[in-house]
From TrEMBL:
Residues 5-163 form the DHFR domain. PROSITE patterns: DHFR_1, DHFR_2. It is an enzyme of class 1 (oxidoreductase). Pfam families: DHFR_1. GO terms for cellular component: cytosol. This is Dihydrofolate reductase. Coiled coil: none annotated. Pathway: Cofactor biosynthesis; tetrahydrofolate biosynthesis; 5,6,7,8-tetrahydrofolate from 7,8-dihydrofolate: step 1/1. It catalyses: (6S)-5,6,7,8-tetrahydrofolate + NADP(+) = 7,8-dihydrofolate + NADPH + H(+). GO terms for biological process: dihydrofolate metabolic process; folic acid metabolic process; one-carbon metabolic process; tetrahydrofolate biosynthetic process. PANTHER family: DIHYDROFOLATE REDUCTASE. It comes from Dichelobacter nodosus (strain VCS1703A).
Length: 164
């Protein structure tokens, strides 16, 4: 059976924070635009808490939620109790994006083929973290730097990694 390429996409601070109190502790329009550009037209897989923070499915994407209960959440969202079932459902997709949260990133980083990380040039307090990116596992393939500006309070780098 074919298997899609697994991309983890996340924004994280220098101390690996990705969330606080069910949301992101920053507002960075440049990162949101980057996320939209990368994921539009593709399948996105997320945990239940991430979906609840979004409040509705993201447009122009196949939305899949991992929820142990398997209970339906929205008419336009497929729900699976395990990531393995979600990936089997996506077997004909070229690629899928894991978009959070922390426990789903931790459960899939060892299976992932690519990482798309927005490094936010600050350290913040948080309660949800991205797993460590081990240099022996990942090769950086592209980096774009953006300074802070009137709409984006922090400088950031968009960094692509490929599994070694």
């Amino acid at each position: 059976m074919p298997k899609p390429k697994i991309h983890l996409i996340a924004a994280q601070t220098l101390n690996r924070v990705i969330g606080k109190d069910g949301g992101m502790p920053w507002h960075l329009p440049r990162d949101l635009q980057h996320f939209k550009q990368r994921t539009s037209g593709h399948t996105i897989i997320m945990g239940r808490k991430t979906f609840q923070s979004l409040k509705k499915p993201l447009p122009n994407r196949k939305n899949i939620v991992i929820s142990h209960s398997g209970q339906p959440l929205h008419a336009d969202v497929a729900v699976f109790p395990a990531i393995s079932e979600a990936l089997a459902f996506c077997c004909n997709d070229e690629k899928v994006f894991i978009i959070g949260g922390g426990s789903l990133y931790a459960a899939t980083i060892d299976e992932a083929d690519f990482l798309t990380i927005t490094w936010i040039h600050t350290e913040l307090l948080g309660d949800t973290f991205f797993p460590p990116i081990r240099p022996q596992d990942w090769q950086e393939t592209h980096r774009s730097h953006f300074a802070a500006d009137a709409k984006n309070a922090f400088a950031l780098d968009f960094v692509d990694y490929q599994r070694r």
